[in-house]
Amino acid sequence: MSNSDLDQKAKSILIENDQGGYTVPTKGLYPYQWNWDSVFVALGFATFDQDRAWREIEMLFEGQWRDGMVPHILFRKDDPSYFPGPSVWGTNGGPIPSSGHSQPPVAATVIRELVDTDVTGLAHDRALYRAGALFPKLMQWHRWFLAYRDPDDLGVIAVIHPWESGRDNLPDWDEALRAVEIADIGPYERKDTSHVDPSMRPQKADYDRYLSIMAACRAVDWDPAEVARTCPFFVADPGVTFIFLRANRDLLSLAERLGRDAEAEEIRGWIAKMEAGAKTLWHEGLKAHVAFDERSGKLTDGISSASFLALYAGIRDETTMASLQAHFDRIASKVRYLMPSYDPDHASYEPLRYWRGPVWAMINYMIARGFAEAGDTTRAERLRADTADLIETGGFAEYFSPETGAAAGGGTFSWTSAIWLSWAS
Ligand code: 2M8
Question: Which keywords appear in this protein's UniProt record, sorted alphabetically (predicted)?
Answer without folding.
Answer: Glycosidase, Hydrolase
